[in-house]
# Entry
Amino acid sequence: MASYDFMAPSYDALTQDVDYPRWREYIEGHFARLGRPIKNVLDLACGTGSLTWELARRGYQMTGVDLSSEMLSLAEEKCRDLKPRPRFFCQAMEDLRLPERVDACVCCLDSVNYVLKPEKLRRAFRRVFDALEPGGLFLFDADTPEKLKSMDGQIFLDETEDVFCVWRGEYSEKKRVCSFWMDIFERSQSDWRRYGELHREYAYTMAELEEYLREAGFTRIKQYGELKRRSPKVGEQRIFFTAVKPQ
# Structure
């Protein structure tokens, strides 16, 4: 079962702090700087489709791809009244195949860290390259190794009126993986039900990610601070990348 399958119904409630309009504005800023029209956009690892919905409302023809069928069901419901309606496909990043090419691909909220094997991420970047039109833009963000290491031994709590989530971080220096053990309690009529999920993220260095992009054929590779249009500063925990498929 994919990560987020059990958590899918509670995901939006537990991520209310994510400012999707701000993310959409940031992405559109990079679209504007590309110097070519952007019409068809792929939201890779789209989750419940919140960012897909934001971009679709701005007139982009959206395609959403995610590994979790449960998350995609929620995304389809969220976007069902949009015209044109986004299309959704259940695929792993490294197995990405689209009916036609897109002008841009975005992959947000440290989704690349969920690809736990470097060779699979290399293949995913190659698939994104193939999915883009010449001149197309690839934009994604990644948690830094420093951030994931800092999660070791940490306990976090998220709660709403109907959902209570406790998660614990454990970092393995040998495997370069941070594991998040989540216990989720969800209100169901007069009682509560409990379930758990394990999430894991791989600590890619920024140099490795840039190398994988170049191997895939991308050029004009740039790094940015978190939701910034400047170079990353020392100690930033989330780094954004943009890369372009040559004309």
